[in-house]
C-alpha cells in the first residue's frame, strides 16, 4: 500500500509539473511571438531541446540520475519521429486556420485510442469513451472558431496526427519495454530531436513566416524571454516523458486539453485576450469530461488492483493447500502407527 501511495504521489506530481510548466511556457511564448515579434517557433523548439539536453547532462555529472545506454537504432528512429511530428504540427498551423489546427489536436485522442486498441490490444470502457467524448466536445466549443479547409493543410494535419500519436505511444512503450526512466529516455533522445529541428527549423520558419531567424535583430528583452522559454522547456519536456511513462498517451492528451482551457483563461486574465460566453461554456463542459475521465480511470485502477490482490491470494491458497494436506496425512500415519 505504501508503494501504491508513493506511485500516486509521483503521478500527481508529474501531472502538476506538466500543467504548470506547459501553461507557463505558452504564456511566455505568446508574449515572445505575439508582442515581441519573434515568430520562429520551430527554431525555438530546437533550442528548447538543446538546453534540455545540456541541463540533463549537468544533472548526470552531479549524479542526480543514472545514465542507461539504449539501442542506437531505437533512439534514432524515436528522436526523428518526435522531431518530425513537431515539424508537421507547425506546418499544420501554418497552412490551416486556427480552428482547423485545434480540430487536428482534438483528433489525436480518438486516433490514439484507435491505435492502442488495434495494435496494443488495450481495452477502453464505454464510460471512459463517453468521458473523452464530453471532454472533446467542451474543448471544441471553447477553442474551435473556424474550419477553413484546404487540401495541403488537411494532408499535413493527418501526418501531424499520425506522427504525434505514434511518438507518444512509443514514449510509453519504450520506457516499459527497456525499463528506463523518463529522465534516461529524454537524455538519450533529446540530441536527435534537437538535431533534426536545428537543421530544418530555420528553413521551415522562413517558409512559414517569410522571415530569416539569422537576420532578426535580437533585443535584450527578446533574449531574456528566449532564455526564460528555454528554462521552462526543460520542465515541460521532462514532465511530458514523466506523465506518458507513469500514465498513458491518452491521459497525456486529456491533460493537454486541460492546459488548453487554462491557457484560454490565463490569456484572458494576463494578456487580455478576447473571452466569450462560448469559451466559458466550453471550458465548463471540458472540466466535466476531465472529471469523469479521472474518476473512471481511478475506479478502474482500484478494481484492477483489488483483482490482482485477489488473484495473488488465491494463488497463495493453492500453494499452501498441498502442504496442509501432506501434513494432515503425516499426522494420520503417525497416529495409526501408535
Description:
The chain has helices at residues 2-35, 41-61, 72-95, 98-119, 126-143, 151-177, 182-209, 220-246, 249-270, 277-337. By secondary structure, it is an all-alpha fold. It has one domain (2-337). Helix 2 runs antiparallel to helix 7 and helix 2 (41-61) packs across helix 8 (220-246). The longest helix has 61 residues, at 277-337. It is globular, with a radius of gyration of 25 Å.
Proportion of residues in extended strands: under 5%
Helix content: over 70%
Number of structurally distinct domains: 1
Q: Which H/E pattern describes the elements?
A: HHHHHHHHHH
Given the structure, what is the number of helices? 10
Largest sheet, if any?
A: none
Q: What key attributes describe this structure?
A:
338 residues, mainly alpha, 10 helices, 84% helix, globular, disordered C terminus
What topology emerges from the helices and strands here?
Layout lengths: L1 H34 L5 H21 L10 H24 L2 H22 L6 H18 L7 H27 L4 H28 L10 H27 L2 H22 L6 H61 L1
Helix pairs in contact: 1-8, 1-9, 2-7, 2-8, 3-6, 3-7, 4-5, 4-6, 4-9, 5-9, 5-10, 6-8, 7-8, 8-9, 9-10
Q: How is this structure best summarized?
A:
This protein is an all-alpha fold.
